[in-house]
Specification:
The complex is a heterodimer of chains A (104) and B (116). In chain A, 0% of the residues lie in helices and 47% in strands. Chain A has strands at 4-7, 10-11, 19-25, 33-38, 45-49, 53-54, 62-67, 70-75, 85-90, 96-97, 101-103. Chain B has 116 residues and is mainly β. In chain B, a hairpin with a 6-residue loop joins strand 4 (33-39) and strand 5 (46-51). The chains are: A mainly beta (104), B mainly beta (116). The A-B interface holds A 1, 32-34, 36, 38, 43-46, 49-50, 55, 87, 89, 91, 94-100 and B 35, 37, 44-47, 50, 59, 61-62, 95, 99, 101-104, 106-109.
Chain lengths: 104, 116
């Protein structure tokens, strides 16, 4: 099984800050990775697919990068609605999520 | 528009089984697989398994093998998750999600509470 290690588990930030969240895969997964935002009481929402492609309708302040085993999600300038929990998901071999990053 | 609409909340006793449905609309059902994901209270997301809506082939996470079953009814574009041998730590919100590489559309979630 592929393990996804996400860091940090929580992050304190302010509106306007640049934020970077990282996921590391236990083995190479090419670019078979997505990033999700989850607000309390809601289903996760896809932000980034194929490691770096922005899902339609997602603001351009979100970006993804990486390939192989190291991946990052960057929010260039935080907006109030971005305070949520973020997850990565690999789909190279079965599926597995990172542990989540709570942005507060 | 693409929607996945799940059945309502359930309360079940330990040892019982639960079935959750996920009705798809707005796209061709058998062109995309479906996965099930659960989230215990205050916890992260956990993948449970995947089903092909083309031929019903399944792939279950090892943790759930032996007590999970995923099925589809193509005539109604509906997928089903059945989980048996319920324990208190199965209390969670259960989501279905359309698979297109990653999971691009999600149901609204179904809360399953296991309590005596």
């Amino acid at each position: 099984d592929i393990q996804m290690t996400q860091s940090p588990s929580s992050l304190s930030a302010s509106v306007g800050d640049r934020v970077i969240i990282t996921c590391r895969a236990s083995q190479g997964i090419r670019d078979d990775l997505g990033w999700y935002q989850q607000r309390p009481g809601k289903a996760p929402k896809l932000l980034i697919y194929a490691a770096s492609r922005l899902e339609g309708g997602v603001p351009s302040r979100f970006s993804g990068s990486g390939s192989g085993t190291e991946f990052t999600l960057t929010i260039s300038s935080l907006e109030p609605e971005d305070f949520a929990t973020y997850y990565c998901l690999q789909h190279n071999s079965d599926y597995s999520f990172g542990q989540g990053t709570k942005l507060e | 528009q693409i929607q996945l609409v799940q059945s309502g909340a359930e309360v079940q006793k330990p040892g019982a089984s639960v079935r959750v449905s996920c009705k798809a609309s707005g796209y061709t059902f058998n062109n995309y697989g479906l996965s099930w994901v659960r989230q215990a209270p205050g916890q992260g997301l956990e993948w449970m398994g995947w089903i092909s809506t083309h031929n019903g082939k399944t792939n279950y996470a090892q943790k759930f093998q032996g007590r999970v079953a995923m099925t589809i009814d193509t005539s109604t574009s509906t997928a089903y998750l059945e989980l048996g041998g319920l324990r208190s730590d199965d209390t969670a919100v259960y989501y279905c999600a359309r698979v297109w590489g990653s999971f691009d559309y999600w149901g609204q979630g179904t809360l399953v509470t296991v309590s005596s």
